[in-house]
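Section: Multi-chain targets

For targets with more than one molecule, the full set of components is provided together so that the structure can be written out for the assembly as a whole rather than chain by chain. Components appear in the order listed by the source. The example entry contains two components.
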Amino acid sequence: MVVAATWLLAACQADISGTAEPPEGSSSDPPGPGEQTETPEPGDWFGAVQQADCKAPRQLARTRIRRLSSVQWKNTVAQGLGVPTPAQDLPQDAISSATGFNTDANLNKVNVLLANAYFDVGDALAPSAVTAALQAFPCLGASAADAACSVPFIKAVGGRLFRRPLTDAESTRYAALLTAQAALDPAATAVGTVIRALLLSPNTIYLTELGDSRAGEVTLTPYEQAALISYNVADAPPDQALWQAAEKGPLNEASERQAHAQRLLQTAGARAKYADFWQQYLPLGDLRKATDLDPALSVAIADETQQHFDKIVWEKNGGFADLLTAPYTYGQQSLSAIYGNLTPNGSGALSLPAGQRSGFLTQSGFLFADADSSVPHKVIHRGLTVRRRLLCQSPPPPPANLMPQVADLDPLGADATPLESYTAFAAQKPQCAACHSAFQPIGLAFEQFDNLGRYRTTYEDGKPINTAGVLENAGDASGPYANAVEIGQHIGSSKIGEYCFSRQYAEFALGRHLNASTDACVIRAPSDTQANPPIQKLALVLSDLQARTHRAHN
Amino acid sequence: MTNERHHVYSRRNLLRGLGAGAVLLSPFIKHRSSMAQQAAAGNVLIFFTPNGHIKDEFEADGSGASFTLKKSLAPLEAYKSELAVIRGLALKTPTEINSHDDICRILTCWEGPDKALAYGPSIDHVIGNAIGKRPLYVNPEPNRAEGHWRNALSWRASGEAEPFLTDPTAVFSSLFAGGVMPGTSAPDPVVERARARNKSLLDFVKDDIQTFRGRINSEDKAHLDLYLDSLRDVEQRVTMSGGAVGGGGGICLPDPVKQRIAELPLTPEQNDDNSPAGLAENLRLNGELMIDLISAGFACGTQRVASILWQGASEGLDPANNKGSPNHHSVSHSTDFDSWKAIDVWYAQRFAYTLESLKKVGMLDKTIVVWVTEIAQGHETGDFVYIVAGGQSLGIKTGQRILYPFSGNPGDKNVLKDPKHRSLADLWVTVQQAMGVPDETFGDPKWSTGPLRELRPA
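Its structure, encoded as tokens over all components, is:
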């Protein structure tokens, strides 16, 4: 996510020539084509979230549609047709500059590539789908044109794909297509054509919040509620229990909605969804560039990053603070080659050397920088990640007319330490330092870790490493620190860190950029009843919020 | 460093290939008013190289028909009578900060808030719309990923960048696989039935979308509009028999070009700024093959509008020194003028190859070739040097240097907008009119004053 904080902008000019340029994705961007003007993002997003009155009546969210993600589409198709999950890859969705995730509902449309992929995958799946259909509805082989046979088939398959019962008009229309095709083709081919049509229907492709689609206030249907819960938690269409609940009527009780969400949270789909979030949240170094790294160790590094998250979320039911401050890690003993002596703590984890590391910010997966990465680049990358991902604050991007030279950031030459270089750079180029001061000092706090994440106290030339500093403009995480571990502790024990993590997850799961003014209560919701809420709770709370029934339609 | 077979493509490229026919065989919605007339024949090829040029050498001396090519254009000496060197045009619709992201604007000529987006269709699509044929957009780098403004030269519409093809097999397929070439045998009834079935299927789905569209919030209707548009591309790919689109008339011999696809050497993968040996040579081979494919498509009449992005804006190999990306960009902001000039010369050799390729199949005089770049020099988007070649049968007057007066700082937006400076958009007015689109403006109408009569006399 990208939030431009006014405290930064006040001193931070995006254009070195003096013409300020709005940061990418910032609230000061005029709306793009087809976008509505939004409430401006407050300069102090954390303050706005803290101060929001979440008991006051809120403006209704608008009705919307969301194209299913690739994973959601595949799960829907597999479940709907009774076939294995399609192996074919769909085009990758773009990473949103506003959220940093590939789930942006505004961006994710059915473009030419995707439409072709849908068509071709549907074509490829048709034979096995037809086989399944003919087994379930044997009458199709001889009487495909007979409505008594075709309508039940269409209602069954179409209902699963659309996540709702088809209307009579819809089933009649599809039956007519089957009749027409059966007059021209063998029955199996005609059935395949109808299945392909169902797959290409927008009712399959889009998750809806349309309700009865009257102008003004509308009420979601029970089936939409069920689908919202299911896709939000597990990236899958409603299971039988949810479907049956929807058949009985609206899911008005929060306890009922949450019970379904809690059940779905135990599925593989939910775990895969969280894993997807984590992989997109954390900008891992590209280990493929580690040409001098033992391949097995490279695998262990990547594995540690994911295991740490999985274990804390699913086994310890931990929260963001645990991710950030755990004095232990999960992974292979071979990581000792990087971390020094790792000792099993008896509960399946490995204790980290005391005082040197804690949490994911000090893991090799996060710290890794390839050998060709310049020191300033590495420092800036680490510092910016903390600002953006952990504090939800982003300085504007470098001005387009800036031609940075490595020498600018290294004014004292290669023999100077990164801290000496930064100090000289900031003195020589105050207009650059106005922005760099927000993140580069944070990056310097990570200098106790080399490119591979190995701990060190001096540079190779014997010069000492000074990692102390003051975290500024970071809400309740602000304060002096001695090193990166303490930065993690500051943020891990702060509300700004907690809210930021909830915000990041919500932007990923809801597929939109949240506004700290209008979405403050969404951001705060997981923390309403519990400080440092378990990460599992994020999906539960969001799916429940999503499934509440009223929307505004125009 | 890993090597890959050239024809081993990424998942993304394969999918792009799947959509290749769609990309290229679109029956475009004819929504523009400016399509009353079509040129009976004629083609346009946009030739993009990044990062501008050193204009001191990438230029000509003299004026009118009496001109001398300078050093960077020396490879074009044999084609001097086939080209026009145009100096002095200004992009009047840059971002606040003229920069490389104006790759999004040089072919679209609309302003907008997001520098990484275009706000209207590019010239290739405007012409494609008019002739009912989705233009071809290629890049000769198998490892290039799409989805970045650096590659966003061609725009279907506001906010909708055209994906490019990097796989020559996909390019060939899109040009010829769906096409019933003149003189081929009668259609296969099984294939014909499959096409008819697909047509029924897609018609049904389109009706479904229209019904669905009626239920959704006005803000989301664009989703359905794009889906409908995309399905039309699918439809063209899976229901139409392809064939000529009003151009052609050249020496139509695609098979020898196809044969060369299999003969392409390994493509090294660039993992850092240091180019592995052979990367530049590989770019040359891939690029020239793409050019020959385009020429074949033009000659056979299966395509009429194409663009080639040799390298992305603000990056690029230094092919003259066989250094990897972004060394081209780096030298364009350095004092290493020799390297920069050498890059210009290298691309001039590729441009010469392009003209010869078209000439060999008898299409140069029927094809307007425009060499464009997103930056004139440094970070300036005024006082461009552009080269237009061919197209004589479409009224293009070649064998001349055209000088449009330019004064002031070509990096200053206000200077660019000064009415005394001729608009780059007017070059596209000229090109579109040559292709049968009669509009007197291109892009944002307030920055057009009509066609360049020096280039295409009335």
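The CA atoms of residues 135 and 141 of chain A lie 10 Å apart.
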